[in-house]
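Q: Got a minute? One more chain.
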Amino acid sequence: MAELGAELLLSLICLTFLRPLTMAVHTDKEESAVPQFVPFGFSVEPEDALVVRGGPALLNCLVASPEAFRVEWKKDGSYLTLQADERRRLLDNGSLLISSVVHSKHNKPDEGVYQCTASIQNLGTISSKTARLSVAGVPRFSSQPEAGLVRHGDSHVFLCDIIQDLVGFSRWELNKQPLALDHRLLQLPSGALVVSNASDADAGSYRCVVETGGVVKSSDEVELKVIAETGESRKLEYLTTPSAITSVVGESVLLPCVVTGSPAPYVRWMLNDQLIDESDGHFEMLAGGSLRIVNLTVEDSGTFSCLADNMNDSLEAKAELNIQVPPQFLKKPVNTYAHESMDIIFECEVTGSPAPTVRWVKNGDTVIPSDYFKIIEEHNLQVLGLVKTDEGYYQCMAENDAGNVQASAQLIILKHDVSLPSPTSPPLTSATTEHVTPGSGGAGAVGPTPSAPRDVVASLVSTRFIKLTWRQPAETHGDDVTYSVYYSLEGTNRERIVNTSQPGEMQVTIQNLVPESKYTFRVVAHNGNGVGESSSAVTVATQPEVQVPGPAPNLQATATSPTSIAVSWETPVTGNGEIQNYKIIYTAKGQDGEQEIDVRGLTYTFTGLKKFTEYSFRIVAYNKHGPGVSTDDVTAQTFSAVPSAPPQNVTVEILNSKSMMVRWQPPPADEQNGEITSYKIRYRKGARKSEASDIVPGTQLHTLLDNLQRGTEYSVRVTAMTLNGSGPASDWITSETFESDLDESRVPDIPSSLHVRPLVNSIVVSWTPPENQDIVVRGYIIGYGIGSPHAQFIKVDYKQRYYSIENLEPSSHYVISLKAFNNVGEGIPVYESAITRPQSDPIDPDVDLYELFHAPYTPVPETTPMLPPVGVQASVLSHDTIKVTWADNSLPKNQKITDARYYTVRWKTNIPANTKFKVANTTTLTHMVTGLKPNTLYEFSVMVTKGRRSSTWSMTAHGTTFETIPSSSPKDVTVVSKEGRPRTIIVNWQPPSEANGKITGYIIYYSTDVNAEVHNWVIDPILGNRLTHQIQDLTLDTTYYFKLQARNSKGMGPMSEAVQFRTPKASSIPKPNGRPSGNVDNAVGITANENYILIIVIVVLVGAFIIISVVVGAFLCTRRTTSQQKKKRAACKSTNGSHKYKVNSKDLKPPDLWIHHERLELKPMDKSPDPNPVMTDTPIPRTSQDITPVDSTLDSSVHKRRDSGHESEESMSTLAGRRGMRPKIMMPFDTQPPQPVISAHPIHSLDNHYHHHYHLGSLASPSPSHGHLHHQNSPRSIVTPMSHLDSADSTESVSRNVPSSDMMSTSSTQHVYSVEPSETEISYLSSGTGEEDTNTYPPTAHVRPTHPLKSFAVPTITPHNPSFESPALPSTPLLAQTGGPHSSKTASIGTLGRVRAPMVVNVPSAPDAQETARMLEDSEPSYKADVLTEEMAHLEGLMKDLNAITTT
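A: Always. Here it is, folded:
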């Protein structure tokens, strides 16, 4: 007992502790459990029925559900009260029984539409499909059948004229006995009786009997007599014909057709002009001509024709058969879970013929569309802002003339703390989809939820939308916080919800609101623990809507041509005022952007559209308030047309000596202009006009041309065709058939090469074919194995050039063999060995280079890629052109292309951000790429394509285009005043965007007149790539205009736009005198600056140098030549006296090396000038107005020329005074070689009494300079003007009075001479004596690098050589581009950077030899060349030191 008591006590204790725990768990489960959907539906639904008056009627209804339900019936939409009804009662299974149908002319209580409904308490109600109960009318005959006479084998028809509903209750009797129907005796749908192929047994009395509800009514009895056939011909005649009929899929139908006549007619049926086949049992011929169709399908719709004919006549009768399809569900609504305030959609998609109408029912009541219940996307039901009362069953009911169906779904609304099951069955709207996220609550949530969001405001309010913003809750209790906005229309309790699209977003736009209405909004935050607190409610009113037009009705778009579409519409029904205009918005199919056009009328025709392209159009009407409601889109497609482009990538592959394969690609899609129906291939021999052609279907992109002639060149082109005709043809592609087919009488030769590349588990094998390619190669055999190549063999196609042997052992020695084979046998193998890498071997960084060898062999040869081109090189030709060349290893050694392969070249700039390639196709092994950017690095690669096979891209080649002059000006030019120095400004700028090379300097132009000519602006050159510069000593209170010009090694770029700046009115710091103009400082090229002591030192040094130069010149002038020189002068005087040039010793003076530096000089220059000069001369030619030719009637004496020169010098001084003294400038350059100077040397004619003078810039006395310019290389010299900024690459040399032998020496050694033009004169060169030499070169303009100290170069006087022969040249001068050795930034640049047009040089006959000798004697200098050269070398050393001082 004690033990029993202990056990009881222990059990009691366990129950005491376990019961609360169990109850807690049970309670927890109840709270967190999700309600399950209840199966609820109909297993049997009522069907349409036809009953007779007084008879019973049964409408079946069987409900399937595990829950208790209640069934009720509706008639014509109203519930029936069956409790006290004696005739109608509800059966136990839910069916409705009407014991006795009541029906009279004025009382039809039982006829109508019935529907069964079933309800489950607290869940909802469902309704069955509807069924129509019809009551047959009172039997009566509208007319009586008539007696008839029929011949043997003929047909007869008895009519039974009753209402259609009673046909099913009718029958026929013969001699008052029921008539058995068979294939001869047939009752038609109208009730009529057909007697076909009549015999004596068919004679008798016939009547039609109708029996309904025990009431029997008969027609009159009529007699049918059967007589013998006389054999007379009788006309064919229809006794009954088919009529239009409508039936339902799955039913049967009878089409009557009874024909009489003699001879007996043959009857057959056709459907839509196709003869009907009766063998399948679907069609059956009855009673000699009527057609029965069983189990109707949609394909049976159409026109049926009954054809009757005999040898004498034929008849045809037609009737339409329309097949209806009852509604069928393609998509049914599904059971749905949701939370309150969510938006949901029940989907319902149905089909049928005619198109069904869909209505929605909720718990047995029809859903009326409203602001919260909307029918969208044709048949779907959208419920907005769910509330608890929205729970229940929703049914989609579809109906048409053939029947009706229904489908139901249950909606369960869960509490917010219960998570929605995943996946959610129904599609949610965009507003609530984001709400279905994990962690939105539920029993499993642990931890605090967010507090209420703060500061909820409407930041944007419109007529139909409101934008809400808020701040984060004070306590989020998590990172991923999302928000839900609940809102409701004032006066309703239905609240809707919109969720933010992503965590942390604190704004949302609520759409589709009602204008001029008040809405209440609140915001709730969610974190991983669940739903937080709600914010305070905010009430916002939408704005009233402006009265804008409604949509334009009856919008139509019709294509009128391949490029035009006509659009028409009608005036909006609700225009809300006068319509001002319409906007047509249209777009082509496949395009993103829309285009629009404004019109005033109600029609518009679009032209210039794309051919065979679909366009969509919509219309928006405008009134004074603005745009109205847009119409829906309508589409139209332009007509097709012939293709506007030829087929692409046409290739020809020679297969053998008598055939070739032609391949192509369709024209571009946007230029096909319709569906390609076929391709026409035209081919001809060479350039003959006669052509052969072949046409293939539009889906075929290749054709074989065979039966060609051997070794014949054929031209092929392809044309695409649409229904509208042929488009343009491709270019002719020429290819030549083989002279003979390849030899297969012997085995192939050994492959010309074999290469292997071992990897860890594979070896990549590549090879080239045998050198003798006249032998057929059918394929290759690869043998391999460890230590022996005979372990395994692999056969590959003859087009294969590589193979990857896989699944090998690491660190193993393999021997590989390769041999070619054909039908005769196998050729000689070539061997190679390789050791696979160890397993631990790192990945080869160069494996990518061999990716093309890793492709496994495919047995389809057409997909095998080709070998890529090799040896790609990029040769730079100019600043925008690069020539790309390559080799093709798949071609023969001579690299001759005999097939239809083509190459694709691609290139791009070598910039990491630039990944866009440009491509071009070519059929040669070179391609010229043009249109490139200057001074830019490009990379190139090439791919080869042959037929459908293409190679990978080759290795890349690189090339940098040459520089060219800048094509844009410096940008962002700004001018500011320097603080504390009002006369000094600072110019800042940025480099040009298109420098086209390294910028080596800038030139600043400034002037007080923005409209002044360029050469009247003051310039200031800047060395290097500095981006700022100071300009000093400007005039106070003056407006200046500044322009900038950049330069690189190739020349000057364009000028920038003028920038205006006005200097201050007063100067706070005293300044010395203004910048000097035309003084010594300017002559040496030193700009004015604050270091005046340095200027004084320089002036003293220059003055001392001038004095030394004068002394040396005077000393040299006292030295004259000996009697030999006098004899030469005497000989010269004794010749033709009409051409005397009295040149005394006093007339020849050494040039003033400082003051008169502008005389023309020629000096042998060092062949290796300083490669990095700091400054180079820049000639400054004057304008054309400054060039004043002297009257040609002047005396030809030397004295008059000198006098004229002195006058010109004085006139120059006056002109210079008026122009403000604009001496020459020094242009700073970068490390480029010294720039050339163009000198045009006019040659004085000894036969002319007149000497023409041109005054260039500052004019000075022209003195004769005795020399001859010799063009070394060209047999016909050409005067070529060149910019002073161009590079001096000429190989010409200049000689002075050099005999022919010396000239040959000069040509071989290529001495370089500098041509120093005179700023103020033209040098006249006289020719030597001797016989005429027709091969003597005419004068030319010479371009030579100048020397930094050219002003101190003294001409070397060549001794007289009478054997030198030269033709005399006329005195027509060439314009000389003047230049000075020093500069000042106050000087005018004149026509800097311009190139003068070349002047014509005439070559006259040579002068008399004696006269020439006399001139040379007179012109012989009175001093020795070696002494002068020694003195000048000393002076040059002094000037180099001076120049070094001044430049520092």
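A: The chain is about 10% helix and 35% strand.
Q: Perfect, thanks.
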